[in-house]
Amino acid sequence: MSAKIRTPIAVAGLLALGACAQFGVTVTSTGYVQQYEPAEVSAAGGGDRQLKVTVLGTPFDAPMSAVEAAVLASMQSTPSGVPVNYATQTTNADPQRPYHVVIAFNPAGIRNPAALCSSPASFRYAPPKNGETVLMGALCSSDSFLSHARSRSQGVERLNSKQFDTLVSQLTLALFPSRNPHYQDDGVPVLNN
């Protein structure tokens, strides 16, 4: 890949991480496959369709239904480049596109968020260490990932707080980029040399 192509991608990545860090949220460990297509994801969960979201674990002293509602509200209010309707109980999923999202708070023993697609039943919750909340997420197609990311932050003490919203929003933005990072603006694949 030429330096001309690599530089804008690297600068965009640094600016995104810098924006996250200023709110105390760090996004790490993002990954995307060549097959990630924003228009396809939007078709699966946009319009009158819904994309199923499964939330695992919680560091909050609240019923799981309240945690799920807070996660969905934060995801839905995030202005990502991919318009999607999120729901924990879908009423109109697209049977042709088996997409779903798995979000996990403080997973124990999972280093790669892509594992959330292949083995969500093996999820184990770990209490926050040193006051840091970790949130992992994966956009899945059946049991494979299309995108995955991890966000983390100090001071996420309650639902419906600015810090909670920022943690979930930054993860949502990382999971649903408006274009596949493997492609340039003109649709040509980015080549790794």
Helices, strands, pairings?
Blueprint: H1 3-22, E1 25-32, H2 38-45, E2 51-56, H3 64-76, E3 86-87, E4 99-105, H4 115-118, E5 132-141, E6 144-154, H5 162-175
Helix pairs in contact: 3-5
Give descriptors for this structure.
193 residues, alpha/beta, 5 helices
Summarize the structure.
The protein is an alpha/beta fold and 193 residues long. The chain is built from five helices and six strands; from the N terminus they run H-E-H-E-H-E-E-H-E-E-H. It has one domain.
Task: Explain what the structure shows.
This protein is 31% helix and 23% strand. It has five helices and six strands; from the N terminus they run H-E-H-E-H-E-E-H-E-E-H. The chain has helices at 3-22, 38-45, 64-76, 115-118, 162-175, and strands at residues 25-32, 51-56, 86-87, 99-105, 132-141, 144-154. The chain has a six-stranded mixed β-sheet with strand order 1-6-5-4-2-3. A hairpin with a 2-residue loop joins strand 5 and strand 6. Residues 1-20 and 188-193 have low confidence and may be disordered.
Radius of gyration: 16 Å
| Proportion of helical residues | 25-40%
Give the biggest sheet.
Answer: 6 strands, mixed
What is the residue-averaged pLDDT?
81
Q: Which regions are unreliable across 5 or more consecutive residues at pLDDT < 50?
A: 1-20, 188-193
Secondary structure tally: strands: 6
Query: What characteristic shape results from the CA principal axes?
Result: globular
Individual helix count: 5
- Secondary-structure element string: HEHEHEEHEEH
Q: Tell me the domain tally.
A: 1
Give the strand order, joined by hyphens, for the main sheet: 1-6-5-4-2-3
Task: Please state roughly what percent of the residues sit in beta strands, choosing from under 5%, 5-15%, 15-25%, 25-35%, 35-45% or over 45%.
Answer: 15-25%
Decide which structural class fits the backbone.
alpha/beta
Q: Whole-Å distance between the termini?
A: 5 Å
